Amino acid sequence: MERFIVLIDAINERIGKFACFLMVPLIIVVTYEVVVRYAFNSPTIWAHESSGFTFLLLVVLGGAWVLHEKGHIRVDVLYSRFSPYKKAIADMFTSTVFFVFTITLLWKGIGFAWRSVALQETSNTVFAPPLWPFKIFIVLGAFLLVLQGIAEFTRSLIFVLKERHSK
Question: Which residues pair with 122 in a beta bridge?
């Protein structure tokens, strides 16, 4: 089971680190748009959507790695005072809410992406880029989040069981 956890961590770390590099084109596109819009009064038809899609990829591909690194927002008022054992119990308990959200996102996202692919959906703008590849990435991101959630839950469960056994 621990090999499974290590594998999921490694996959999400690599994908997350790759996603970090998406900041470069995001910064370039946004900077370009600001310069041409305000310095030359010549806004583009593609920069706004391109930056939005790049940000979407950054978020959905990096989310699972952020979960592994404990980078998501947490209310630490009580949690920070817990022992490692109680933190593991709290993490397992709060995982139920996490799984309801991520599994629903995955389930609904699959249908959402499937319809988009079948229709070869494009944006309703002048630029009209295809939307279906990005909807597939939402499903991939949800899947990676579910996998990382399973790894985090399993890690906590193993810790709790080892602690109980050692007492």
Answer: 130
Domains contained in the chain, number = 1
Q: Burial of 100 by CB count in 10 Å (0-12 exposed, 13-18 middle, 19+ buried)?
A: exposed
| 113 vs 72: which has the higher pLDDT | 113
Report the SS3 class of residue 72.
coil
What is the enclosing helix (H) or strand (E) of 40? none
Distance in angstroms (rounded) separating the CA atoms of residues 123 and 141: 21
Q: Is the pTM of this model over 0.85?
A: yes
Measured CA to CA, the distance from residue 36 to residue 29 in angstroms comes to 11
Residue 91 CA: distances (Å) to CA of 26, 73, 115, 158, 161: 34, 13, 35, 12, 14
What tokens appear for 146 in the block?
């579910």
DSSP state for residue 33 in the 8-state scheme: H
